[in-house]
Design brief:
With 240 residues, this protein is of the alpha/beta class. The protein is built from eight helices and seven strands. The structure holds NADP nicotinamide-adenine-dinucleotide phosphate. The site of NADP nicotinamide-adenine-dinucleotide phosphate has 28 residues, from α1 and α4.
Length: 240
């Protein structure tokens, strides 16, 4: 198999489950050394074992993105171990209570912390390592809630916030040939909010492995252009 990401180092957040795990497996298949980040170590080790059994290379990095000191320590480990980071996929995210009335202060802080602040902390902490890669890519996973909001105030606000952060990353990255992409996926078949996996038809809920392939295509696109933003929806899901 062609290995277009051989010699590349890819940090994938939320790599123990769902889209993050599918992305980590796909990028490892394309030859990247993947650094798997999430809070819980055991599921990360399981993901790393699957990648290594398939012939890939993985490094486990437990870290809570909502805690700045943990992010700083994780970034230092990455820099000490690998130096440059060629790919950063900001994928980790948590859901939030659906309605305004149900959303407590703690829910707000937890969701903004993981879904928005964590993306800033990690991208900022890895910035020098991304610059060192001389042609890095930063892909941030939002969701269609980041375009149209919706019922959940904390989740919608975290994803809208990512758009502003993404534009800032893109602007700052231009001087260092860092390509920044924001993806707005609709429903994916990952068990999000406890939904059963494998029940909905593919036209209503996307296979995370297929979304991961799209991420791989963006990362391996010719270097003279950048995919700034993209909306990916299952064909039957109404958009807007
Ligand atoms: N699934 C959908 O239908 C859908 C639709 C649109 C957008 N999205 C977005 O797509 C992304 C991936 O969703 P998914 O469905 O694949 O989610 P998922 O299956 O629930 O996986 C979430 C991953 O993020 C990690 N994580 C959560 N909070 C973290 C934190 N504070 N620090 C570090 N890691 C953390 C989790 O591991 P630990 O719990 O061990 O930390 C897990 O690996 C999210 O940003 C989500 O908002 C999903």
């Amino acid at each position: 198999m062609n290995k277009p990401l051989a010699e590349k180092t890819a940090v994938v957040t939320g790599a123990s489950h769902g889209l993050g795990r599918a992305t980590a497996e796909h990028l490892a298949g394309l030859g990247a050394t993947v650094i798997l980040l999430a809070r819980r170590e055991a599921p990360l080790r399981a993901a790393a074992a699957a990648i290594e059994n398939a012939g890939g290379s993985a490094f486990v990095l437990p870290c809570d993105l909502a805690i700045p000191a943990q992010v700083a320590a994780a970034a230092q480990r990455v820099q000490a171990e690998f130096g440059a980071v060629h790919i950063l996929v900001n994928n980790a995210g948590i859901p939030a209570p659906r309605s305004f009335a149900e959303t407590a202060f703690d829910d707000w802080d937890a969701v903004i912390g993981s879904n928005l602040s964590g993306v800033f902390y990690l991208t900022r902490a890895l910035w020098e390592a991304l610059i060192a890669a001389d042609g890095a890519s930063v892909i941030t996973i939002s969701g269609t809630a980041g375009l149209r909001g919706g019922g959940s105030p904390a989740y919608g606000a975290s994803k809208f916030g990512l758009s502003g952060l993404h534009y800032a990353i893109a602007q700052a990255g231009k001087a260092h040939t860092i390509r920044a992409t924001i993806l707005y996926p609709g429903g994916m078949d990952t068990g999000w909010r406890g939904a059963p996996i494998g029940v909905l038809p593919r036209g209503e809920s996307m296979d995370p492995a297929v979304v991961a392939e799209m991420i791989g295509q963006i990362l391996t696109a010719p270097l003279e252009f950048v995919v700034n933003e993209a909306v990916l929806n299952p064909i039957q899901q109404p958009f807007m």
